[in-house]
Structures are given as C-alpha cells and as structure tokens.
C-alpha cells in the first residue's frame, strides 16, 4: 500500500481497484497455425467464423476452435505463455468474446476494446424523463468498457481485466426518418455505421462521423467530408451522437422549456451514478458475473477471471511538500497560505518589481457598489473570509495599490471595449493589471463575439494582464478573495512561494511540452494539418522561468521546429543561469502523450549538441484518459463546507500510488479533502510513464517531483490535477487558440509577458 509522509497521522486505507487478475493455469500450450498469405484470413473468417477465431501474428495465422470436436484447420505449435504475450492476449480476447456471447446472446458488443451497453432500465438515465413516444428513440445508456492489460504482480507477469464505464447518447432514427418527421438536418454533423462483413452481425457496428450536411436533394444529403463533398442516402446516415444534436432534436419534439428540464434532470442523475461508492459497487457486481463464465477453447486453452480486484503492486512513499518563502531556505511551512501570511511572498524585497500596482477595474454600473466594497476587501482584508483577513496589501507586502474604476451601462461588446480603450489610452500611467467583470452567459458566444476574449486580447497586446471575476463572487467573496489575490500577484510577475529542491546536481530543468493541432474538422479521414508547440520551463524548485511558442508548421515538420525552439530556449537559460562546462545538467520533459521512439531519438540528438555539459534526460508522459480506478472503501467521506452533504466517499488519499510496471505509475492527485462537493463524482488517478530510452529513469524521484509540482500552480492554494509544467502548457495552448480567432491578434503580443503568468 502506498503512503504519503506528512505531519498528520493517517489511517490505513483499504484499497480496491477496477483491475481483476486473469489466471492461466499452465506455462505452455498448443495452438493451431498456418502460414499467412494475402486474403487467407478473410477467406477463413467467411467460411468458419461461427466456430473458429482467427488472428495474425508475424508470418502466421493462428486458429482457435470454439469446441473440442471441431476439425483441425492447421498444425499444432507449442507456445510458452511468458514468451508470447501478443498471441496469449489475442486468445484471451477471442475466447472471452465467445463466452460472453454464449451467456448473453441478446447483447451485441464491440470486440476490441470490448464494450457493451447495459440492459438495465436504471442505467438509461433519460428513460423516465421522456414521453412514451420517445422512449425507444433517445437513450443515454451506461456503456460497460472492458480492457485487457498486462502487468507484474508480485514478480509475475499477469494479464488483467480492467472494468470501466461511461454514459453515451444514442438517437435511434436514421436521417430519412428524421427528415420525414420535419426535423431539419441541414448544417448538422452526421455519421454512418460501418459493419464487419465477416462477423455474421454478432459484433456491434462502428459509428463513424463523416461530415456536415450542406444540402438535401430528395432522399440524399450532400455532406462536406475530408474527401470533398459527397452524396449519401439519408437512410444510411444518423445524427452524430452529441449532446448538442440530442438537445436540438428534443427541442423539436417537446419544446425548448421541456427539453431543458429533461436534460437538467439527466445531468443530476449522472452526478449520482458517478458517485465512487456506486461505481465500485457496479464494477464489483459485473466482475462477479464475468468471473463465473467458463473460458475455454477446443484446443484446451483456458483461463479464469478473479472476482476480487487487486492492488498488489509496489508503491512509493511520497513526502508531502514544504513551501519555501525566502532564498535563504529559513522560512518554510507545510501550508502555503499560512506561510504566506507569516513570511510574505518568496520574492518580497528581492525580485518583485511591482510593489505599487496600478489596477484598471471595469464593471457594469449596476454592480459598481458591490465592486467598490469588493476592492476594499481585496486591498485590506475581509473578516468573514477565514484565509483573507489581512488583505492583498499586507499579505503580499505591497507598498500601495491604486484602483481606477470604470463603469459601463451595457454589456454590449463595443460599449465594454470602448470603455477599456478610453481608460487605457487616456490614463497618465500604464496599468499593471486589470480587473474585469464577466458573466456566465458570455461563455455561450464564440471568442470573436465574447467581451471576455475581446477585452483580454486588447489588454494583453498592451502588456496588461487581466483578472476576470463574476458578479456573484464580487457580492459574496468569502471563498474567492484569497485565490483572486494569489492569481493577481502571479500575473503581476510575482512568485508567492517555491519548493525546496535537492542540491545534488548543478542544474535541473523541467520542460512542459504542449501542442495545438490545427485541423479543419474531426471527420473520418481528417488529415492533421498544422501544429504549434508550447513549451514551459521551470527550475527544480518549481520556479517558473518562461514559456515559448514555436512557429506554426506542417505536421510533418512539427518535431524539427519544436526541437529548434527548445534549443533556442535552452541556449537562453544556460546563458542566464551560467551553466559551466563539465557540469551535470538534468532535463526532464513532461508531455501529454507517450513520445514515439523516433521523437525520443531526435531529442536525444538535440541533447548531443551540448557536449560541454553532462546531460541526463528523462521523457515523462501523462495520461488522464485511461481505464484505471483506485478506491478506498473505508473512506466514509468528509463534511462539505458548501452544503450539508458528505464528499469524497471511497476516494483514496492524495498521493496514493501503484507501480503497474517499472516506469509506469498510477498517482492519485485528488483526495477526499480536495473534492469540492458530493456532486463532483469520481476523479481517477493520473498515469505517469517514464520512457525506457530516457537516460535518467529514477521513477521514485520523478513521481515525487510530479507530486511536488502539483502544489505550485498559483491558481488556488489547493493542489492541481496536473504538474504545473503541463498545466501551464495546456492553459497557454487553450487561450492562444481562442485569441487566435480574434481579428488583429498575433501571438507575438504575449512574448513580452512570457515571464509573467498571464494565463492562469
């Protein structure tokens, strides 16, 4: 069991998972095979698919008969289980599929990954909300998702079944029927069904998005696809299974008000179904059913699935971080907010250059009274706020703060933007930061029509960072003042705290690598067009150095351009930090998805361009979308400060981890105390992978560093769900993508702000 070292005593957790071991009761087995030749496997499937399974590996076709008395179709070959994971995995999938279909012939699953819809009415969350004429047309069903994995348990390579689920929309009317009913499919995205020709209709067809409808001609639709405009029969098309399409159809049938009510009720039910205790109960129940099936083929290959989940993996003992508030390492605290209140920010009196910030404030005139009161509380503190009684001025050791309030009488974009322009252009001194009122309804607009993004683009062009705040938070700032002040200090270029680092090497650099894929659409056959790379650079203590944006290039040129951009940044940092010849330098790359070996080799070539340093490098990838879950079934939950409910049930402590493989770690970053409300649902662990071609592969050090780097985002005093290296890269990427849609915007505008955290 993993543990997190802290000053507080922790109870022992009772960890469970959604990972179920598969036991194979022999070391070797015999399997039929024949030499592979073009078209042979399709021929075999067409003739024998009901009684045999076929799959290809290297230069052979392997054959699995469903029963013992079936004729031999190939020669027997002896295989060792531990040597041929691919063959064994394929056998398990095929035998599992047949066993499942025998037990549940009415269900049509997909094959790999193995998914199937629940048949229970309470797993169709919209069923009881719909009028009777729609109950068979629209569904929002639970889709069970089973994945086969392989890992090491107690020193033995073991196959594992990972059980997960999600809810999926379905609209069971083809576009011909929709059009006949009067529903207009023009401009909507559509899909078709791709069926397996040799499956005898026992495998669910693939739902494939093809494009957007441009116009209708009789019983056909002209669809804009990535291969150009193409005609499809309406009877062969279905609406893409998106929330937006479901909403439009519901509004057409039952009206806007009723549709809104139905969807709100479905959303509430989904919150309840994603309760960790319910998830664990349903996973355990399904595992119990699957464990009772017989898994065996005609050649004697067999296996069993455990009904009990496993957490029997090695784990790391992680230290809870201490926060550092001065360069002499003498002022530390286990709480960032307490340390900040006691010592002031890390860069107080040393590096921070804006000790008397000038702040532009823009709000609607109906909110001006609340804003005036809010600004006073922001400056001097608020007694009702448990963590912000001292105020921005005293807590961050500022000399003064000057507000320039501008009232507008309309939320119209031109009125709002003109008021900002007039204030900026007529004010005697440059503003350091702006506080701008924003509203939830602005999010419904595209960025080029949203005053939030229009004002941000204008201000950033002039070197002014922006803090947005909603009117309800201005009127009730009890729980938002501390985060607002923290973000403002960081946007002014401040460093509230850093993390103590080990002085075991001369220099360590952490590089977060994000990217933006620019493509015309998401239709089948879509080509990846252009790429932009975003890199963030940090010291080992978590101190933000700067971010950099590569040029926009064709996808095939992206890595060459990214590496050129990286080299320029490393040159700058090595000069600024005074790297000396012969010194040990460690560079740790954080990326969102596993890098290909080719990419690793190219970056290795980049490192080779610095022979004057002893460089060790590591490639660490992170995954949020994966099937793994960890539960603490003894965690009864904590009282929520926002409601009378209990939050965090079945949620493991922050820092809980499992080493699935050498270099592969599950790390839980949201514990019970980090869950906001009982409606937040389940938050799974992060998957961390250290690439085996890295020259620095100490997984204990790397995971500990990742754990520490989630404590320094400066967005809130709470830990983040990603290390700051990737969090910042993703925030910059997301915001630049939206700013790029605004006329006159150029990403070069933020280059002078690259040392400031303008994006948090």
Automatic annotation (TrEMBL):
Domain Piwi: 432-741
Source species of the chain: Pedobacter ginsengisoli
Listed SMART domains: Piwi
Protein name from the UniProt record: Protein argonaute
Pfam families reported in the protein's UniProt record: Piwi (PF02171)
Family to which the UniProt record says this protein belongs: Belongs to the argonaute family. Long pAgo subfamily.
GO molecular function: nucleic acid binding
PROSITE patterns, per the entry: PIWI
UniProt cross-references to InterPro entries, sorted A to Z: Piwi (IPR003165), RNaseH-like_sf (IPR012337), RNaseH_sf (IPR036397)
